[in-house]
Amino acid sequence: MKTIRRTLLITLIATFGLQLVGCGAADVQSAKLYRQRRDYITADKMLQKAISEDPTNDEAWYLYTVNLQDLKQYEKIASIIDTAMLYSTTHRAELQQLKHNTWIQLYNGGLGAYNANPDSKEAQQAAISYLEAARKLEPDQPETYELLGTVYYAAGDTAKGLENYLAEINQVSSSYEPGVAMGLMLHLSPDAVERAIGGAPARKEIVPIGGTDSAMIYVYPSKQAYIYFERADKLPHPWQLTGWRITSLDAQGMQPIRVSTQAYALVANDYYQKGLAEMQKGDKAAATAQFEKAIPLLMTLQQIDPSDEFASQAIPDIYSRMERTEKAKQEYERILADHPSKAMYISYGTLMMKSNDYQGAITAYEKALALAPNDEPALFDIAAAYKNWAVADQNAKKPEYKAELQKSTDYFEKLRAINRNDPNTLMNLAENYDVLNQKDKVISLVSDLESLKSTETANSHQYWDLLARMYARANRPNDAQAAYKKSDELKQQGH
């Protein structure tokens, strides 16, 4: 009996369905006529009627979705597109393209709504509505999660912001990490990429990316790597690496994307700040748990973009707070063995400085300078390392301190030759020359610092603090007192 009943049921449904197809077909034909007149609203009603009468009508679902696009009802498309593709089997390719185009419209709608007024709650909610629909439509697009994270953060919903950033990281890591393993990192020149990969690409192409901008693509089929460069007017090379994609699909690979580190930085910073807060409470175990979540993200961030200042400062600080200097050294040495970079050497040197390993810090800074001889941060850091070493040896009454202080002075002078108006450099030189008993040079440096009083530099309290200290070095107590007073005034003004 069960088999009979089922057969009868199927027969009834099929017969009923055939009857409805007739009605639905008439509604579809009417909808087509209304669409020819650009009366998309009436066409929408006819197509909804056709679908309600025959939920499996191939043509009705296809036209209904296309009509929604003409009505610009992109969020509605996001809610029904999967059903449309299920039933409109003869139009799957067209619907797949429409689906992607709808994602673009929703993403741009969210971006536009947010950018129109980022501080407006209404704009934030409008953007979230667009972007949540975009995320539902194409859940494999990392750009959606990044922008959603940004908007949720702006709206004060940190938990959802982090949730979306973590989702983005989970998606992009499968592409970012193989690129890093090949030696790719942001801002590399094409020549540097060829050295990292081990040869010239199989092909190079220039493609437009909007307006008058273009991207250059290096294709390495054997590695399934597509590497993207954009023009960089202010760098030594006309092109710099801005992204890469690891894929076997050439059509996808020929669509340039930019590698973004925003999610890594924001999530790592959240863990870092929570760790610092736990340290303030005296809960070392809870702080360590947060720091251990931050470290792998920071390491990946620095490998992708060695110039990232936050990572270069946070990594040494975290390891120092956790008292794991040796572990940190191993991590840096492992990375630098395969992918040496100026910024990573500077970060490594900072870690050594925090552990009072002056020679280790200086060696790291020297390697950074070997890669970039006139790099100002590296010059300042190595000069400071020698100075701190000299102070430690002087306190320990070791005669080597004078030679170390002279080395510090030599590096500060190199830095001064590049930037003659940096107050910190002038101050450090004055202190060094004072200890070295070269008073005439101290007086000259005070004069150099005084000459900056008419510049923008003098609008900060830090400048007047430095000047006051230099006046004290030059035995000018009244001038020092006046400079400190000026510093206090600027602090009260928020400068």
Global outline: elongated
Give the averaged pLDDT, no decimals: 87
Q: From the 3D coordinates, which CATH architecture of the largest domain would you assign?
A: Alpha Horseshoe
Mind telling me the CATH class of the largest domain? Answer: Mainly Alpha
N- to C-terminal distance: 89 Å
Q: What ranges have pLDDT less than 50 throughout 5 or more consecutive residues?
A: 1-23
Can you describe this structure?
The chain is of the alpha+beta class. The chain has helices at residues 2-36, 40-53, 58-70, 74-87, 92-116, 121-137, 142-154, 158-181, 190-197, 250-253, 262-281, 284-304, 309-321, 325-338, 342-354, 358-371, 376-395, 401-418, 423-435, 439-450, 461-473, 477-492; strands at 203-210, 213-220, 225-231, 239-246. The protein has three domains: 2-127, Serine Threonine Protein Phosphatase 5, Tetratricopeptide repeat, CATH 1.25.40.10; 187-253, no CATH class; 263-492, Tetratricopeptide repeat domain (Serine Threonine Protein Phosphatase 5, Tetratricopeptide repeat), CATH 1.25.40. It contains 22 helices and four strands. The protein has a four-stranded antiparallel beta sheet. Helix 3 runs antiparallel to helix 4, helix 7 (142-154) packs antiparallel against helix 8 and helix 11 (262-281) runs antiparallel to helix 12. The relative contact order is 0.04. Residues 1-23 have low confidence and may be disordered.
